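User: I'm writing a tutorial on reading structure tokens. Could you give me a worked example: one chain, its sequence, then its tokens, then a sentence or two explaining what the tokens reveal?
Assistant: Sure. Here is the example chain.
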Amino acid sequence: MEFVIIEYDPSYSLQTVRMWRDSKEQAIGKKEIHSFEDHVFYLNNILVQDNKVYIAIDTSEEQVVGILACNENWVNQLYIHTQFQGKGIGKKLLDHAKQCSEGRLFLYTFEVNKKAQQFYERNGFSIIGRGNDNEEKLDDIKYEWTKF
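And here are its predicted structure tokens:
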């Protein structure tokens, strides 16, 4: 499978949100608390305000297989299509976030998402905190990565 990373374009919004919701639900074992329409609105009108948003596209199918929303200090969203996990897409997106950073990144992941924890720790992130200040009211882990 070959994929490219492009800046998010709203023409991909339905595919992106469908993939994002499926990936998140698989990761945390809970249904998304927001409606599909609210999620599309969030992506197109709120997330893009403070983040650069990128999507990974499977070139053979023109299918969205990943999303990254980041700024110079934070990885705010990183989700990979459930059928395309473990194929290097997440690493490529995370490396892109590192390149766009100021040399230091933070992110949160849910404590129940063991695959994400292993992924971030394999890619140089360290745990710096814990909490549960999120809409899902699930325990989460705060990670940090520094370039130096």
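What the tokens reveal: The domain at 3-146 is CATH 3.40.630.30 (Aminopeptidase). The mean pLDDT is 96.
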